[in-house]
């Protein structure tokens, strides 16, 4: 079986059938549990997610009912092998007994950790393979279409930030492999998706310059300058201003043979905006009973 949280919520049965919980609160409860597999999630945390700061007096009892219906769904839909108890009571709350490879977010994090380790070890091709496996799991915004509460909102923000880390790592690895030119389409898409992420802009500007497209590199710099001025009243970072100066100074001389130096994203980038969303996420609505 598999629980997919990256994109629309999906429960995939052992035989490959797709199922989505009919009751939104059951789906949200399972999502909280799936983001902490094999850990007891306190009842108070689940109640906070489902009812916010002002739960009804019946919240604990209603939560037990949601757990009952989730277990029944697992059985009736034959989600996994008979006799396997996925959802168990464990003080101080409930635990979802699933393996890391049965939750897409856990798989994503595992691939990303492996990619980082192999990148640090100089195994760049293997690192590229692992980070691409991680990004291939991304089917859309985490729990898209699900009206989430404060607990899930915080955990979704963490996973979406990890996606940005994975995108940065992929660009860094491919650049070290000498494939900067091949990244141009992806970099153009990324600066549209994350317009205030200066490191992505810098990589695009550098890749255009190294491809001999000096005027486009300068246009990309001025586009970033305009965005920062309009949105925040800021200028590009010192690294990017130096990059612009290098491009301007390249007129009349041979282009440099390698990519222009920009510090690694974890030390230099100014990620000034949250992960943008093409459509606003539905807000949680209190539902009693």
UniProtKB/TrEMBL annotation:
OmpR/PhoB-type domain residues: 1-98
Pfam families documented for this protein: BTAD, Trans_reg_C
A biological process from GO: regulation of DNA-templated transcription
Alphabetized UniProt keyword annotations: DNA-binding, Transcription, Transcription regulation, Two-component regulatory system
DNA-binding region: 1-98
Molecular function via GO: DNA binding
Spans annotated as Disordered: 251-289
SUPFAM superfamilies: C-terminal effector domain of the bipartite response regulators, TPR-like
InterPro entries referenced in this protein's UniProt entry, alphabetically: AfsR-DnrI-RedD_regulator (IPR051677), BTAD (IPR005158), OmpR/PhoB-type_DNA-bd (IPR001867), Sig_transdc_resp-reg_C-effctor (IPR016032), TPR-like_helical_dom_sf (IPR011990), WH-like_DNA-bd_sf (IPR036388)
Gene3D superfamilies in the cross-refs: Tetratricopeptide repeat domain, Winged helix-like DNA-binding domain superfamily/Winged helix DNA-binding domain
Family membership: Belongs to the AfsR/DnrI/RedD regulatory family.
Protein name per UniProt: DNA-binding SARP family transcriptional activator
UniProt source species: Streptomyces griseoloalbus
């Amino acid at each position: 079986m598999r629980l997919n949280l990256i994109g629309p919520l999906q429960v995939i049965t052992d035989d490959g059938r797709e199922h989505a919980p009919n009751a939104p609160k059951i789906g949200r409860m399972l999502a909280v549990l799936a983001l902490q597999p094999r850990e007891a999630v306190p009842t108070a945390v689940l109640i906070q997610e489902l009812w916010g700061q002002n739960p009804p007096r019946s919240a604990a009892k209603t939560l037990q009912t949601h757990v009952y219906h989730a277990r029944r769904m697992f059985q009736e839909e034959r989600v996994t092998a008979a006799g396997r108890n996925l959802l168990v009571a464990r003080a101080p709350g409930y635990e979802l007994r699933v393996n890391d490879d049965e939750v897409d977010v856990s798989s994503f994090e595992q691939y990303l950790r492996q990619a980082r380790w192999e990148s640090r070890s100089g195994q760049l091709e293997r690192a590229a393979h692992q980070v691409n496996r991680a990004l291939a799991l991304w089917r859309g915004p985490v729990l898209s279409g699900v009206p989430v509460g404060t607990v899930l909102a915080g955990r979704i923000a963490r996973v979406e930030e990890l996606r940005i880390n994975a995108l940065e790592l992929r660009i860094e690895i491919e650049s070290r492999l000498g494939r900067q030119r091949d990244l141009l389409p992806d970099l153009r898409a990324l600066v549209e998706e994350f317009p205030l992420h200066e490191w992505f802009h810098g990589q695009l500007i550098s890749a255009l310059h190294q491809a001999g497209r000096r005027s486009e590199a300068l246009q990309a710099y001025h586009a970033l300058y305009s965005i920062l001025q309009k949105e925040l009243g800021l200028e590009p970072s010192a690294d990017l201003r130096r990059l612009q100066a290098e491009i301007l100074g390249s007129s009349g001389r041979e282009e440099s043979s390698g990519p222009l130096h920009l510090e690694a994203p974890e030390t230099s980038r100014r990620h000034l905006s949250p992960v943008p969303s093409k459509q606003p996420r539905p807000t949680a609505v209190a539902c009693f009973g």
